Amino acid sequence: MAFSEFRPLNEKSLIEYIKATPALSNKIGGKFDDLKIEEVGDGNLNFVYIVVGSDGSFVIKQALPYIRCIGESWPMTKERAYFEALTLKEHGRLSPEHVPEVYHFDRKMSLIGMRYLEPPHHILRKGLIGGNEYPHLAEHMSDYMAKTLFYTSLLYLTTTEHKRAVAEYCGNVEMCRLTEQVVFSDPYKVSQYNRWTAPYLDLDAEAVREDNILKLEVAGLKSKFCEKAQALIHGDLHTGSVMVTPDSTQVIDPEFAFYGPMGFDIGAFIGNLILAYYAQAGHADSANDRKSYKEWILKTIEDTWKFFDKKFVGLWDEHKDGPGEAYLPQIYNNPELQHLVQRSYMKDLLHDTLGFGAAKMIRRIVGVAHVEDFESIKVASKRAECEQQALRFAKQLLKERRRFESVGEVVAAIRQTES
Amino acid sequence: MAFSEFRPLNEKSLIEYIKATPALSNKIGGKFDDLKIEEVGDGNLNFVYIVVGSDGSFVIKQALPYIRCIGESWPMTKERAYFEALTLKEHGRLSPEHVPEVYHFDRKMSLIGMRYLEPPHHILRKGLIGGNEYPHLAEHMSDYMAKTLFYTSLLYLTTTEHKRAVAEYCGNVEMCRLTEQVVFSDPYKVSQYNRWTAPYLDLDAEAVREDNILKLEVAGLKSKFCEKAQALIHGDLHTGSVMVTPDSTQVIDPEFAFYGPMGFDIGAFIGNLILAYYAQAGHADSANDRKSYKEWILKTIEDTWKFFDKKFVGLWDEHKDGPGEAYLPQIYNNPELQHLVQRSYMKDLLHDTLGFGAAKMIRRIVGVAHVEDFESIKVASKRAECEQQALRFAKQLLKERRRFESVGEVVAAIRQTES
User: Fold this and answer.
1) Which of A233, B60, B70, B264 could form a disulfide with B74 if both were Cys (CB 3.0 to 4.6 A apart)?
2) In which band, very low, low, confident or very high, does the pLDDT at A104 lie, cut at 50, 70 and 90?
């Protein structure tokens, strides 16, 4: 059986494919007798097979030319697999501890073979719903974000390298367009894809569509998303794109990657932690009121930004005489000025982070794709209450983000919404 | 004689080239006997030939792989001719009244054949030095800028079209790098290329290199220049890139074109008008104190922005239900909100314009490439006085640009520097 052109695999043809691909068959020691294959694509977009043999394992991810959770009625370029593989390799080079290794990529088949993140690895979002603490999460995620964002920005790259990479990732425009639609547009207008916990949030959804200041602010963020080629961002860095154990943190699924604003990644992660925070009331029961867990989430939000800030600025200091062309050492040549430009840069980045984080929260409550944090709260009135609190805070954050000087103030503002 | 690979032309080989190129020889009716050819490349970068026959005329511009005014020691991609031709065609399609027609482009030879802008067309900068008024200048330039910038932005383009064009123009990175160096870097550090009217401006040049706030602000502008792909900008829109008669305004030389921040173009034009303003004291004599001429320059600055604002917003209104994806009509669907987002957009654009304009002024006084407005003031002390005034205002503008709400306030601030 040949694989000279694209075709969707099934469990049977997948075995043929593996047999014909040494990079994969070698991973399982060429043994096919006891091979276990399981399709686990519970995401929205792709087919994912776990392949486990007695001598090894891997995951196969194949992109189909439409969005899986909606069907063939919403076509989506399968070229996204190319950008995902490219980014896994690039981010993996920069942060190997937190990105699974790519064993094989087949552009024609839109197929990636990569490390199987064996149990107890699980999706972070599920762990947050379960009330699990991850003591290294902030440390790991800040490390991943600091390295992938710093090293692909003009703080480290020459403008020649940067523009070449920007041009290549312009090819991932269809995925960018999907984000533009579902994050920055649909929630702010009547759209067939929008949904919310009706009837409880009917007025809230309408209020989002009729809030002029909110729509002014979201336009500014959309422009930044479309125009500001700051670094190679993951593009979809919510808590469902992170797999964890107590000791390991692995970032997966960068198929939305492109050169965009850094704050979109950091905001996605922090925004989804804030969603997890507001969902806790819906998961509390007599055995666990989740109060201390909510404190852990707040601490993780605060630490994520603080550690990120420290690591990012640390990389900047380390490479201030390096190839990066944004701040030439002959100009930014005194400690006072170096500190001044860094604090200005980080403040702008915090504001971007809060803006994008808020936009990502809003779209998860009144847009097409919701989060399990809320969806798993079965009592609709309870779910609605959690969502309303989160939505209220997100709107405030989006509009007033520029008045926050530190992440500590953000956490204090979250606390205030409950006092 | 064949032209199958790049070689620099001279007046003799140029004739062979024209004979071998129907698009050019047809323009002069195929008559070579009375052909007049003159090399007039008084710019910094290229060779330019005017070709005039009894039946027609054209201009030939050839890019060589180095910067003409410095020599082979400063190499520069001749591919710039490709981006110049591409932009002349694109901007010419959008604003045909103000961009000369391209008759022929030869990528291999880095050679453009285009309309000869016959006398009395002359370089605007020379006219400003001469004290000539151009009653339609603000009208024409605002028209050119409004159309070329609006129609290549996301206010009119889909993100698919925009990203495709952004990617293509990433190829003009070497020209961007030249701008980064001479506008945003060299003036703020010790550089072998910098010069100024010594000894008068020695302390001023040093003060620029040691002004932390100025260097903080210029870093922000450099980041915007490198990262913000807002529209297809000319990239070098000073008063030496504009040819004029009292009735005609023609924009030439877009070899620095790429997708960058709109304010870089508008700022280049307005910044160079402000330089012309401060140079007038050096051109005044007993016959003409230039006072009324300075008023005309101020009025032209004010009108250029005001007309630009009106035309740009007019195009936005006209196309608000068009293909542009930045502000979808289903979201920005009420007049109050439409007004709100437009005023916010134009205010940000004014601040970008003032910032880039100021940076362009500074670099013309303490950087490598100076302007004839000042250079033609023969008495060094007088020249220095004009330059110091301009530099002082530019620094103020760069640092305090965000406090200006209108171009009227900018003009008032210019007046204040002389009171």
Assistant:
1) B70
2) very high
pTM score > 0.90 for this model?
Answer: yes
Q: Which of A176, A228, A229 sits opposite B159 (nearest CB)?
A: A176
CB atoms within 10 A of CB B87: 26
pLDDT tens digits for range B54-69: 999 999 999 988 776 6
Q: Decide if A84 contacts A174 (C-beta within 8 A).
A: no
DSSP state of B288: B
Distances (CA, A) of A159 to A28, A162, A273, B227: 42, 5, 34, 10
Per-residue pLDDT, A44: 63
A177 close contact with B: CB closer than 8 A = yes
The β-bridge relationship of strands B258-260 and A57-63 is unpaired
Question: Between chains, do A326 and B222 touch, taking CB under 8 Å as contact?
Answer: yes
What gap in Å lies between CA A387 and CA A374, rounded to an integer?
7
Integer Cα distance of A269 and A264 in angstroms? 9
φ, ψ at B321 (rounded to 5°): -100, 15
The nearest CA of chain A is from the CA of B209 a distance in Å of 7
**Predicted confidence (pLDDT) at residue A147 exceeds the cutoff of 60:** yes
What are the Cα distances from residue A225, in Å, to A386, B30, B230, B326, B385? Answer: 28, 53, 11, 10, 45
Query: CB distance B327–A171 less than 8 Å?
Result: no
Integer Cα distance of B292 and B290 in angstroms:
6
For B177, the token pair is: 């790098």
C-alpha to C-alpha distances, B286 to A219, B244, B283, B393, nearest whole angstrom: 55, 27, 10, 27
- Evaluated on CA atoms B244, B151, A164, B79, the torsion sign reads negative
